[in-house]
Amino acid sequence: xxxxxxxxxxxxxxxxxxxxxxxxxxxxxxxxxxxxxxxxxxxxxxxxxxxxxxxxxxxxxxxxxxxxxxxxxxxxxxxxxxxxxxxxxxxxxxxxxxxxxxxxxxxxxxxxxxxxxxxxxxxxxxxxxxxxxxxxxx
Length: 138
Prior knowledge:
Structural class: alpha+beta
CATH class: Alpha Beta
CATH topology: Rossmann fold
Largest sheet: 9 strands, mixed
Number of domains: 1
CATH architecture: 3-Layer(aba) Sandwich
Helix content: 10-25%
Distance between the termini: 24 Å
Number of strands: 11
CATH superfamily: P-loop containing nucleotide triphosphate hydrolases
């Protein structure tokens, strides 16, 4: 059964989910917007429904906010949304290692690679795509 998790944003890149974790105002929605501009699909903004299907953790849009993304200074916009198997978690931080080694987060007993990530650094969306390619679950 899916469990709604607040304060996590998720996008799907090439069909693989990237959880974006961080405190309010840390840049979750902004990073998601940058990734969507590069071809990602919204899963959920400031909330996702997580569910274990077999051995795979899936993220889906919660029904009450499906397709809604908050853009600061603009408001809430409607976007296409999807669900995706979770491949990586980015934990937004003010400082992140220059050459990181991923840790892991755990949901429903399933370990997911987790990387400390600076969303406000230059080229954040491109770096997030490379992080998925390098550290994400295939």
